[in-house]
Write a structure and sequence with these properties.
Organism: Comamonas odontotermitis
Distance between the termini: 49 Å
Number of strands: 8
Pfam families: RRM_1
Helix content: 10-25%
Order of helices and strands: EHEEHEEEEE
Domain RRM: 3-81
Protein name: RNA recognition motif-containing protein
Radius of gyration: 20 Å
Structural class: alpha+beta
Keywords: RNA-binding
CATH class of the domain at 4-78: Alpha Beta
Number of helices: 2
Length: 116
């Protein structure tokens, strides 16, 4: 069982340290991170907490799911593994790979175009 927790519907006022403090009531917190928008620097309204053990993570989920924080009812559950998008291109395990789409980029429709 996993010990990584997803926390959703967070108020924008929640910080990494306040998130960690709330979960520390249930046991040792390995890490706590509120996800931030890179353009605005504002919270995206969700984060992740990693607990020291799966038992402690389950206790935190049961204790905090549905709790009201600054007027918002937070969602707390086990984090799902990140899904890798297919054919997205980019840098991966095998090095850089261009998108798998044939209608994007050079060669299919002129300079930088695609099919129109």
């Amino acid at each position: 069982m996993s010990n990584k927790i997803y926390v959703g519907n967070l108020p924008y006022s929640v910080t990494d340290s306040s998130l960690k403090d709330n979960f520390a009531e249930f046991g040792e917190v390995s890490s706590a991170k509120v996800m931030m928008d890179r353009d605005t620097g504002r919270s995206k309204g969700f984060g992740f907490v990693e607990m020291a053990s799966a038992d402690v993570a389950q206790a935190a989920i049961k204790g905090l799911n549905g709790m009201s924080v600054d007027g918002r009812q937070i969602i707390v559950n086990l984090a799902r593994p990140r899904e890798e998008s297919r054919n997205s291109g980019g840098y991966g395990d095998n090095g850089f790979r261009a998108s798998g789409r044939s209608d994007v980029g050079y060669g299919a429709g002129g300079h930088g175009g695609g099919r129109y």
